Please model this.
Amino acid sequence: MNQIYLPLKVHAVKLEYRRLLLEKMPHGCIRLRRGKRTVVINYDPEDPKVSSKCPRFLSVASKRGREYAEIINKYLKVKTEYDYLLDLWYSTYCIAPPRVRFPVVRGHSFHEMNNEYFDEQKENRGKYETDTPTYSDHGALKSKNELMSAELLDRMGIPFKYETELFIGETNKTINPDFLISFFEIDRCIYLEVLGMNDKGDYSVKTATKLYDYSRGKYRPGREVIYVILYDKSNFDSDYFVQQVMSAFNNMIPDDALEWAEEDIYLEQTS
Model:
């Protein structure tokens, strides 16, 4: 697959999240000035005297310069992401993107699965070891399907942790979900299970048991857990995987979180 398709609400949230970040960040660049690497700051929300006409110059070799170099590099990364998302928006839609009310208010959940929860979880807790691990930049994964899943999550810009621990009191079991992924823009995370090799009897029984455990623990499909069901180990479908993840993300964003300008609503209805 080539370009990752972003559903409208996900696209709008990603754009607005970065626009608001940029408002709070110093703007500038790092370039050579008089033969020295220099941080050039042309906007600073904490110093109204700084502007494009009156920039601040800091040597990268200085302590203050190193601090600002890190800040400006973060700004440039967010700006690149924002510009890409904005260009993609206008190439897809004929209206301006909406504003988004943060924090995004979600429906009732039985579990507090937010950014704080994601940060607290430790990964690589699984005790099962395969004889044929798949090595990658993400460490040793248990299958090629998990490797392809990790690579697609990277492409979608979705942080993840591999094989965290989850205790389900209703069945008195501790399981190791394949992934815990973060929709950090809306302060939400969700488990992701890649269920392959269901053509094999023993594995399909394990899959059914895992689904039962999640269900007893009130982990709902599309709300607290995503299931990507594969019918054998060689039929990984990238488009299907992305659709399952993005659909869950999109459905967690209520329609009323998006604020459209009145003329945009009219254009949307008549286009």
